[in-house]
Amino acid sequence: MKIIIRLLLSILFLTTNAKAFEIIRDTELEQFTLDIVSNLLDSNKQELNELNIYFIQSDQINAFVTGGKNIFINSELIISADDYREYAAVLAHEIAHIQGGHIFNTSIEINNLSEKALPIYLLGIIGVMTGSSDAGIAGVMVGQASINDGFTYYSRTQEASADQSAVRILCNSGIDGHYLINFLNKLKAMEINKFSEENNYRSTHPLTDNRITWIESSLKSYKQCNYENDNVLEKRFNLLKAKLYGFTHSYEETDSVYQGTDEKSLYAKAVSSYLRGDHDKSIENLYELISSDSSNPFYKELLGEIYYANSDYAKAANYQKKALDQIEKVNDLYLMMMGNYLLSFEHNDSIHQGISYLKRSIQINPKNAYSWYLLARAYAMIDNLPLANYATAERYFLIGDRSLSYNFAVKAIKNIEEFSPEWYRSSDLIKILEKEVSIN
Question: Residues 346-364: pLDDT tens digits?
Answer without folding.
Answer: 999 999 999 999 999 999 9
